[in-house]
UniProtKB/TrEMBL annotation:
Organism: Takifugu rubripes
Origin: domain of life: Eukaryota
The Fibronectin type-III domain, residue ranges: 178-263, 264-351, 353-439
One Pfam family recorded for the sequence: fn3
Full protein name: Fibronectin type-III domain-containing protein
InterPro entries for the chain: FN3_dom, FN3_sf, Ig-like_fold
Length: 447
């Protein structure tokens, strides 16, 4: 054995301090050694009078050859077999993430670093929830991150000696959590539905969708309520809420079924029966309804009439004479009422004209008949019926007096008045009797 050559070279790495240490056995009282670390055409040297050397400026990810050369009177720089050492891996850089919103799978990628045998990617929340994946390449995947959390992503490079964490990190927002506690309140009058839910972790905004066989309706909001407009009457919708951030959408919430109010009746028809003053209403139905409510409301604010039926027609008996009524029909299903149908106005028969009186004009052989105004009348018709079949009449649209002309002399006439409107005639007024003649006027009133 060469008495000058250092023996038992032993190299080690302090990963935390980034220091490579070398020790050896000295010979022949040598007290000065030249120690060199060589890698990739780069040499780092130092001098020591002991049998240990420490290198603090070596590069990461390099395989160094360590050489010890003694210098003394007897040993002029003779070197022995070098020692080899792998330094710590270089820190991974350029860390990036890519998230699959549907599966919540996250792919972590980085730039491969010198001296690394494998890598460990750590995805961790501030409260300690973590997921890891390992790879011997420059990427790995983490499945099924917990929803709605902000994660910090780091990568650790490892070899046989050391584990080195990346000096940089990146952040990742996982897919928002699906909304829960969905609640819906429908408004049959406006065909809208107010949808509410509990806040979702990670959500920036929400989309609410109502789907049916007829149409789809949606709304977006950053709040936890949203109003669905323009729903179709008599329809069933499946309502779901999706939470969103700037990159991903959650899975849809559990579906809620919403049934809108029934549709209002169509083609409403209203007729009045003149002799009885009965109002008959009929209509067509659209969609399902349990029953129908018919309202007959006088325009003067009097007492209204109504009927409740499972059919598509009903009658209101003997309504008040001389009134205009507004009629509409409402469909009912369960506790939901439709919007009112189109409102139809109709007049009942005019009231019987009261207070009839009369006088004869012997010069013109005519009679002047007067009466009090009848409610609901647009015009009046006066009839004079005499003995032996003689008849005469007159009409007026604005006055309550009318002249019946061309009466026969010496005839007893019965006079009566009928009020009219566009739908009906009233019952005849009381009858008065006037007898024509040259000098004598006789007046009889019969009830």
């Amino acid at each position: 054995m060469d008495p000058c050559t250092p023996h038992n070279l032993s190299a080690s790495v302090n990963c935390d301090m980034r220091i490579v240490s070398l020790s050896w056995d000295g010979r022949n009282g040598t007290n000065v050694y030249m120690v060199s670390a060589e890698a990739a055409n780069r040499t780092t040297s130092l001098t020591t009078n002991g049998t240990t050397a420490h290198f603090s400026d070596l590069s990461c990810g390099q395989n160094y050859s360590l050489i010890v050369a003694p210098h003394s009177q007897y040993c002029p720089g003779t070197t022995g077999t070098p020692a080899s050492i792998q330094t710590w891996p270089c820190p991974p850089v350029r860390i990036s993430t890519r998230q699959d919103c549907l599966s919540a799978l996250v792919e972590v990628a980085w730039e491969a670093s010198n001296g690394s045998d494998f890598y460990t990617a750590t995805i961790q929340t501030g409260d300690g929830i973590s997921n890891v994946c390992m790879s011997d390449s420059n990427q790995c995947s983490v499945p099924g991150l917990i929803c709605g959390r902000n994660f910090s992503v780091t990568v650790t490079a490892s070899n046989q000696q050391c584990k080195i964490n990346s000096s940089e990190s990146t952040s990742l927002q996982s897919v928002p959590c699906a909304p829960t506690n969905i609640s819906t309140v429908t408004n049959g009058t406006t065909n809208t539905a107010l949808v509410s839910w509990s806040p979702s972790l990670g959500a920036v905004r929400y989309t609410v969708t109502a789907q049916s066989n007829l149409n789809n309706v949606s709304c977006q909001t950053s709040e936890v309520t949203c109003n669905l407009d323009t729903l179709t009457c008599g329809n069933s919708y499946s309502v779901q809420v999706v939470a969103m951030d700037d990159n991903c959408s959650s899975i849809p919430s559990q579906a809620q079924m919403v049934t809108t109010a029934p549709c209002p009746p169509q083609n409403v028809s209203v007729n009045v029966s003149c002799p009885s003053n009965d109002i008959s209403i009929s209509w067509n139905t659209t969609g399902a309804a349990d029953h129908f409510l018919v309202s007959v409301i006088p325009d003067n604010g009097g007492a209204s009439e109504s009927c409740n039926t499972t059919n598509t027609a009903c009658s209101i008996r003997n309504v008040t004479c001389g009134h205009t009524f507004s009629v509409h029909v409402t469909s009912v299903r369960g506790s939901s009422h439709s919007q009112h149908s189109q409102t139809i106005s109709i007049q009942s028969a005019p009231c019987q004209p009261p207070g009839i009186t009369g006088r004869l004009d012997c010069v013109t052989n005519s009679a002047w008949i007067s009466w009090d105004a009848a409610a609901g009348a647009d015009s009046y018709f006066v009839t004079a019926v005499g003995a032996e079949g003689s008849r005469a009449n007159c009409s007026t649209s604005s006055n309550t007096t009318c002249e019946v002309e061309d009466l026969a002399c010496g005839v007893l006439y019965n006079f009566s008045v009928v009020a009219k409107n566009s739908n009906c005639e009233s019952q005849s007024s009381e009858t008065i009797t006037l007898e024509t003649g040259n000098r004598l006027l006789t007046l009889y009133i019969s009830s």
